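Hello forum,

I keep getting stuck at the same step: I have a sequence, I want structure tokens, and every attempt I make locally crashes halfway through. Rather than fight my setup again tonight, could one of you with a working pipeline run this one for me? It's a single chain of 192 residues.
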Amino acid sequence: MLLLVLGLLVLLTTHSVRIFAEPWRLAQQRRMGVRPWQAAFGAVSLLGFVLMVWGYGIARANPVILWFPPVWTRHLAALLVLIAFVLLAAAYVPGTRIKAAIGHPMVAAVKVWALAHLLANGTLHDVLLFGAFLAWAVAAFAAARRRDRAAGVRYPAAGIARDVLALVVGVLAWGAFAMFGHAWLIGVRPFG
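Reply #2:
Ran it on my machine without issues. Output:
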């Protein structure tokens, strides 16, 4: 469990610099240069990710059961993760009404994904992993929306076709991941 916690601390602390220390981040970028800063940020993030995945794998071998979620929570989780995939797609398709309304659909996707997995899993390592990501995403989303309001940032929508594209890409990616990727990467089949 220690590696999981350490990985989460490294990964989420790195990704929280913009939330809690934006002036310091900008000063480091000026001092180091943007590219070296990005390289250092990426290296530390990768280290945190590796530690997190490794720790999660170790924790799964000897799970501490906190509760037994009802079967229906798996179905709810699948629906919520579908929404998360559409939000994720909307983050990369420029000009969607989804991005215009939400502002930061990728961070919103992390919130929905983490909540879905908290509902459907009842082990200590799942609560640590998904609870940490949910708490981070809530803080990151609020900070990003505050920055947008302070700077007067608006995300214009270019038309319904962009939303349809985000929806189709999100649904297809969700289906592929649910049927193949989740079992291959995580070892769990969401649909049995």
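The chain has two domains: 1-62, 64-192. If your local run keeps crashing, start a new thread with the error log.
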